[in-house]
């Protein structure tokens, strides 16, 4: 029904059916669909809970598998010596493999890529969606006119298929913010109503959990706010690939050749430490000229990030990088002079790439050494646009005594 008031009046009679609250909607004008969407989302907590439970189970299974692998290794002296020899023998092959994987990174077949666009109100998310759909991509639904009205939008560009998830929420929230003239919500987000903020975070989480890659949009003029940092924290925690989109770049005055690089440095180092691995793209979703050159780049960068998120590297390559890293810098000596030793590392999972380090005692590896190892993996192998996870697994206590061999440091 096009008229909200008339819709409410007519819908009242449906209460008599006693099947729950009626929602008057108009498929043509979109009126009432926001309320319907809210009610649907409210009805979904069981699914989300189920999702959490499944995610938890997967994590436990992964950890269980890692522990089982440690047990199976039965790390006695001779097993460790054999591992060390194998690592040495494989060094040459691994070096070639590393060259190949860094220089001629094989194109990963991605299939369909699910993207979500996150960011505070008014940073330009709707404009970006419109630019992506209107200019750079083709709506693929054959059902006339329906693609733009659903929450998800299918687009194909350069032969790659993408689904922009939850775009209805983006448009609706932007309209609500504007209609209310809510300066705090639509502006910098400072002093935002806590209830609205909880809703915004919940919506962000829902979108995050449905996608492969997040486009986190920030406003070039406003820079990064506390709210952006919270969103970054969620992206990092959920382990999604990410592209940092700095929109409204046209508004930044007095740009020169170094402005982008400086902005990127600031945004990563000072503000979004959690997403230092994300690729940054500068866009002007509104300006016709800039749309063509930059907005299409967002999708290409997102596809690359998703490829990295799904990437698997060989155990030989990984162990070569780890061995070199320990040769440059060995783990510091702990209490009583004990030193951490890495026996073996393996990639246990993708999405995001997760590496298990089998070590003598994980407690002997301080946080800064773990960060160093992550940095080395990134430096040597890459993974731009994707988070990576390092899990450190101690050898079972029963076999720790008297251990001396292992990967040479
Ligand atoms: P959303 O709330 O994040 O979806 O933001 P909108 O897409 O609705 O944009 C908010 C405001 O910013 C609108 O007035 C847009 O016209 C404007 N806007 C969006 N992108 C750009 C841009 O790249 N440059 C400029 N100058 N304005 C923009």
UniProtKB/TrEMBL annotation:
CDD domains: EngA2. Keywords: GTP-binding, Nucleotide-binding. Residues 312-393 form the GTPase Der C-terminal KH-domain-like domain. One of its GO terms (cellular component) is chloroplast. GO terms for molecular function: GTP binding. Residues 115-248 form the G domain. It holds the Pfam family KH_dom-like. It comes from the Eukaryota. The keyword Nucleotide-binding applies. NCBIfam families: small_GTP. This is GTPase Der. It comes from Prasinoderma singulare.
């Amino acid at each position: 029904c096009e008229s909200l008031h008339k819709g409410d009046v007519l819908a009242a009679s449906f209460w008599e059916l006693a099947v729950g609250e009626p929602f008057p909607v108009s498929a043509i004008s979109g009126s009432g669909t926001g309320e319907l969407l809210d009610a649907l989302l409210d009805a979904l907590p069981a699914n989300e809970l189920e999702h959490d439970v499944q995610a938890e189970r997967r994590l436990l299974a992964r950890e269980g598998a890692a522990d089982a692998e440690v047990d199976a290794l039965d790390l006695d002296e001779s097993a460790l010596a054999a591992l060390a020899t194998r690592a040495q023998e494989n060094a040459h092959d691994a070096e070639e493999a590393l060259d190949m994987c860094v220089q001629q990174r094989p194109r990963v077949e991605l299939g369909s890529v699910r993207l979500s666009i996150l960011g505070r109100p008014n940073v330009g998310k709707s404009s970006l969606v419109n630019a992506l759909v209107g200019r750079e991509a083709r709506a693929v639904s054959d059902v006339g006119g329906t693609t733009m009205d659903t929450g998800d939008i299918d687009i194909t560009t350069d032969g790659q298929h993408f689904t922009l998830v939850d775009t209805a929420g983006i448009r609706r929230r932007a309209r609500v913010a504007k209609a209310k003239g809510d300066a705090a919500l639509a502006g910098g987000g400072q002093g935002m109503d806590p209830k609205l903020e909880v809703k915004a975070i919940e919506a962000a989480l829902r979108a995050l959990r449905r996608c492969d890659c997040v486009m986190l949009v920030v406003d070039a003029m406003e820079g990064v706010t506390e709210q952006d940092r919270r969103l970054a924290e969620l992206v990092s925690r959920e382990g999604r690939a990410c592209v940092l989109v700095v929109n409204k770049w046209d508004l930044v005055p007095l740009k020169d050749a170094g402005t982008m690089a400086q902005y990127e440095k600031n945004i990563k180092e000072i503000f979004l430490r959690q997403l230092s691995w994300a690729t940054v793209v500068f866009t002007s979703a509104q300006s016709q000229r800039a749309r063509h050159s930059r907005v299409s780049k967002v999708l290409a960068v997102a596809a690359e990030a998703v490829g990295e998120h799904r990437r698997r590297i060989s155990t030989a390559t990984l162990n070569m990088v780890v061995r070199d890293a320990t040769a440059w810098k060995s783990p510091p000596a702990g209490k009583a002079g004990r030193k951490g030793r890495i026996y073996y590392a393996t990639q246990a999972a993708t999405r995001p790439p997760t590496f298990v380090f089998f070590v003598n005692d994980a407690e002997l590896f301080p946080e800064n050494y773990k960060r160093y190892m992550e940095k080395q993996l990134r430096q040597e192998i890459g993974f731009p646009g994707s988070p990576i996870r390092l899990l450190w697994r101690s050898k079972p206590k029963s076999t720790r005594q008297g251990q001396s061999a292992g990967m040479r440091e």
